[in-house]
Amino acid sequence: MRTKLVALPRRAFCTHAAISGTSHIARLARLGQIDNARRVFDQMLHKPIASWNAVVSGYFQNSRPYEAREMFDRMPERNTVSWNGLVSGYVRNGMIEEARKAFDVMPERNVVSWTAMVRGYVRQGMVSAAEVLFWQMPEKNVVSWTVMLGGLIQDGRIDEARRLFDMMPVKDVVARTNMMGGYCQEGRLDEAREIFDEMPHRNVVCWTAMITGYAQNDRVDIARKLFEVMPEKNEVSWTAMLMGYTQCGRIEEASEIFDAMPVKSVVACNAMILGFGQRGEVVKSRQVFDMMREKDDGTWSAMIKVYERKGFELEALDLFAMMQREGVRPSFPSLISILSVCASLACLDQGRQVHAQLIRSHFDFDVYITSVLITMYIKCGNLVKAKVVFDRFGVKDVVMWNSIITGYAQHGLGEEALRVFQEMCSSMTLPDEVTFVGVLSACSYTGKVNEGREIFDSMKNKYLVEPQTEHYACMVDLLGRAGRLNEAMDLIKGMPVEADAVVWGALLGACRTYMNLDLAEVAAKKLLELEPENAGPYILLSNLYASKGKWTDVADLRRKMRSRSVSKSPGCSWIEVEKKVHMFTGGDSRSHPEHVGILRMLEKLGVLLRQAGYSPDGSFVLHDIDEEEKLHSLRYHSEKLAVAFGLLKIPEGMPIRVMKNLRVCGDCHSAIKLIAKVTGREIILRDANRFHHFKDGSCSCRDYW
DNA sequence: TTAGGGTTAG
Predict the structure, then answer these.
(1) Domains, in order of start, for chain A
(2) Taking chain A (705 residues) in consecutive chunks of 10 residues, what is each chunk's mean pLDDT?
(3) Is the CB of A62 under 7 A from strand B?
(4) Interatomic CA–C1' length for residue A670 and nucleotide B1, angstroms
(5) Whereabouts are the PPR repeats (predicted)?
(6) At A46, is the secondary structure helix, strand, or coil?
(7) Residues 82-141 of chain A: which lie with beta carbon within 7 Å of strand B?
(8) Cβ distance A118 to A134 under 8 Å?
């Protein structure tokens, strides 16, 4: 009697402890704390199979498949759940072959094992393999049918999916929601709505799916009506509604939804950061960001992206540094964002660091991120490194080929670009419209008129790529640079689509080079109609008037600009020194702490340049100001300030890399050529359009830009 | 402790 009394609670205690240990492990693993989960497991005296299974699954859930396998191999005994955990764990980590091996050797299979394997093939996009397995299943339940249904939908085989759906012996909410979502994806809202209306029972998930369906298909107002009447809302449904508004640019309403949400989930906050960012309300984005107590990787990358897109590159970089200080390990999406920041800001040192992180996280085998990486190296002016990364990558896709072709084009390496293009074609990768923009601009930068013409013609005939305005713009540029202005004008007249600002801009640029005032006025007039707020055409035209000494016309233009409140966007240049970016605006060096040194360097250069026979070219200054003032404003152009600072700071033998937000001015171009000569330094300047490699008194663009 | 549906991001 006594033993019984004692034994019973003891056994009850033991079992209870074991169960709670197991569920504790599972909970920790779900929270991403797999190492703590492992500690709990190690401390357990009695380890039931379930606890082993929980640890194995936990490792898989946290993307540590090798440790999961090690635990599995060490298990004293295994049941079907253990084997199923192994199969589904491999599936979850995209290791389909491993999953299949485990599936083939497992001693006993049940519906779960089969379904996990079918799901694995679906996840890999191997839908036919999934179908084969599905029809071999000894027994199926609603879940297995639903997995197969999802596979067909994912494959875009929506009508086949419907046939399968009709064959299902039992349909529950999940299956119906799947079918409904499939129709929504295809834009077949009526069929989706029919399934929704005929559902015997609806839950939050299917209401949300229907709302998303309407929102994604430009029916956000219908979505809102459903949202108002749905019986129960959760964070996800609020977020879906919010997204519906942000995606169609209705930020006011998105913001209202956001304010009304009882619980502001991380996802909703992230969406709102991006939503405000879209409209350029960067401060509001930041307010949401600062308000969040809990942030995920998406939060950081959203805020970084907003900064990057809206031209707050330094803030983006600061935030990335802060993220790392707070110990947040950047994962795939934020690394992509920050690589784009590095590319647009051209901070090579930061970019290199990110590259190292990619290698450490094994992301360097991804085609997509590698293309971003190549672009980053190119935009930082490090073509050699870009090519090394490119060559090392195995099977390349169009985007990667495009990155390197466009890169060569921007650096003025026309021959190389064309060679890579040939290589691409013989590698059986079909060029797309982006490829041709790269190839044609390569021809244009190197003056290969005939090659360009041939390629332009082959686009349609050989590669079945319809030329778009960008391609016409390239051709206008190509002909225009070669001085064939009338041919360029004829091409524009013959365009099947309306010429846009880029096309007219190309013509205007060529008119500037060849001093053709008549055509310039035609192009500029068109441009002022198309983009009245853009300062570019005013400036080009006024430079043209100025260089012909027509100061009354210059004054007229300036009056027009003022009355339409158009202002010249201030030119600025920057340079990275020891992982810090230094920004300079024209005429203003005083804001920099080392302005005294910079001015002294400029004085010194001035003497050296005059000795080398340099005379400043005042035609590049917009205003009709007196000669001396003009020369003064030339001397302090932002690119010159940045170059001077680079000469002070960058060690001898290292190239000086300077970036500018506008096109380099002609005077600076000739000055920097000479600076490269008299100082014996290599200077790489990235302007808004392309790269200039200055060495020994000449530039890689051969004065043709 | 193992298999299915709705929200963000590149």
Answers:
(1) 385-563 (1.25.40.10), 572-699 (no CATH)
(2) 33 45 88 90 93 95 93 96 96 94 96 96 94 96 96 95 96 96 95 95 95 95 95 94 94 95 92 94 95 89 88 86 84 79 82 83 79 89 90 88 91 88 89 92 87 91 89 92 91 89 87 85 86 74 78 80 69 82 74 83 83 69 49 70 88 86 79 88 84 84 71
(3) no
(4) 72
(5) 48-78, 79-113, 141-171, 172-206, 234-268, 296-330, 397-431, 432-466
(6) coil
(7) 82, 84-85, 88, 92, 110-113, 115-116, 119, 141
(8) yes
